[in-house]
Amino acid sequence: MTPEELRAKTREFLAAHPPASTDRLDFLRARFDAGLAWVHFPQGLGGLGASRSLQAVVDAELAAAKAPDNDPRRIGIGLGMAAPTILQYGTEEQKRRYLRPLWTGEEVWCQLFSEPGAGSDLAALGTRAVREGDTWVVDGQKVWTSSAHVARWAILIARTDPNVPKHRGITYFVCDMTDPGVEVRPLRQITGEAEFNEVFLTGVRIPDTRRLGEVGDGWKVAQTTLNNERVAIGGMRLPREGGMIGPVSATWRERPELRTHDLHQRLLKLWVEAEVSRLTAERLRQQLVAGQPGPEGAGMKLAFARLNQEISGLEVELLGEEGLLYDDWTMRRPELVDFTGREAGYRYLRSKGNSIEGGTSEVLLNIVAERVLGLPPEPRTDKDVAWKDLAR
Fold it and tell me: Pairing relation of β-strands 170-176 and 153-159?
């Protein structure tokens, strides 16, 4: 399909579903059914089997028509992590059941991966799934789960065979967050909010029809999720001065009395780095046209975390005493992280989590070293040891 053909198709869709007079949810459902949700997905699953690069043609036409979007920040885990994993490993029935309401935002997703004893070393996870006929009974605890308090579904990895090395005894499931035995508890953060949660799973019964991939292949399936997660976090599409660099640049222009030579030099350096990172993310997205994301996304996520922390620190210094103010410490459970909608103090505190969530910076440095640069891997004495025999 050429850009001109896709542009014409999008305009025909808009003529049949005028954004101004069409219910928002009806519009989004119709867009999915027309293959204009993500054009690179197969027909019938929200796409047209077209090149990923052509999505920009659709988005431009819809934006010009002031069409509603699916509030992507609120459903980022579903869009950026669950959807590509379901597309690659799900059955046809699973794809048709989950992808449409995922994309329209009718069903929110969360990610049950990290555990109190398995964060940086995720493969050491201890949540157990024991098979009983056509059902798996899951017991364990997950932590740092964004959006668990509003999610209908979760992507879950659990240990199904403790007698093999840790990477080989894991299986990947889709968990219904409304099922008996699923308990979500808020984790209040340094910002005062609790967008993260801990999730306790007690005798949760998951049908085998909600398994993604083969039994024991969960680590391989999880790599698809993790690679896409890093791209979703570090490679998001931003305009120039989008993201954290925007507010501090605006303050610099609007408040000349705050300026110093030292702050000017630091701001220039970070502005350039933010623009380089933005353009590199664009190049990474273009590379995705040729295939699935690789470990390069780890480098982008690293840059995202470091830049956010340095920029937010500069902003607090620029504002002086004002930078120490904080608008509201009330305990809240938001549906998304709003970096640019709050004040400098919030950005400074919340950015501290950027080097932890989505893979710690230390782990990502190892990934870049070993899988991108080809450096010798660190010695791993537990690589061939059965999980049940590992020291814990």
Answer: antiparallel
- The gap from C-alpha 238 to its chain's centroid, in whole angstroms, comes to 16
- In a 3-state reduction of DSSP, which class is residue 43? strand
Tokens 């009806």 belong to which residue? Answer: 26
CA 74 to CA 248: how far, in whole Å? 24
Sign of CA dihedral 386, 123, 148, 145: positive
Name the DSSP class of 372: I
Which amino acid, residue 135? T
**Farthest CA pair distance, the chain:** 71
Q: Compute CA distances 307 → 25, 194, 310, 362, whole Å.
A: 36, 24, 5, 16
- Specify the pLDDT at position 147: 93
**291-305 pLDDT per residue, tens:** 656 666 778 888 889
Which three-class secondary structure state does DSSP give residue 247? Answer: helix
Is the pTM of the predicted complex or chain greater than 0.85? yes
Catalytic residue among 61, 193, 195, 229: 229
Model pLDDT, residue 282? 80
Q: List average pLDDT for each run of 10 residues in the chain, which is 392 residues long.
A: 94 97 97 96 96 91 96 92 96 98 97 92 95 98 95 98 96 98 96 94 98 97 87 73 93 96 97 92 71 69 92 96 88 85 91 87 88 87 90 79
Q: Looking at the chain, which runs of residues are DSSP E strands?
A: 109-112, 128-132, 135-142, 153-159, 170-176, 182-187, 196-207, 211-212
What does the alpha-carbon distance between residue 34 and residue 85 come to, in Å, rounded to a whole number? 22
Long-range contacts formed by 12-15: CB under 8 A, 24+ apart: 14/61, 14/62, 14/65, 14/67
Count of CA atoms in the C-beta half-sphere (13 A) of 177: 24
Q: Is 229 a catalytic residue?
A: yes
Distance (Å, whole) CA 147 – CA 337: 10
| Coil, strand or helix at 125 | coil
Are the C-beta atoms of residues 79 and 72 closer than 8 Å to each other?
yes
